[in-house]
Amino acid sequence: MSIINALSVSIATLVLLPALANAQADTRPEALAANFMVQFYDVPADSVSVTLTEQTARQAKAKAEVAGGHVCIMEMALAPEGVHAPFGWLVGSMQCDQ
Fold first, then answer.
1. Total number of domains in the chain
2. pTM of the model
């Protein structure tokens, strides 16, 4: 991942923190991926589809798509106990189409 992409993801994460704090208590990795897409692309939730491509008890990889063509692949890890993570998962990496 290039520095620009990493900075984009980091900035997007900072922008999304308030939205994540107010989220419902859905603790599936799909919910976190969908929420990122809704906030990142400013689209309604029903226009986002998420498919888990890999999942273990502590890790997940999802392909999230927005109607109209935006696609992101997210790698997530289960949040450790005591860490404030409204969805119960943390995004470790995110690659989106340009």
1. 1
2. 0.72
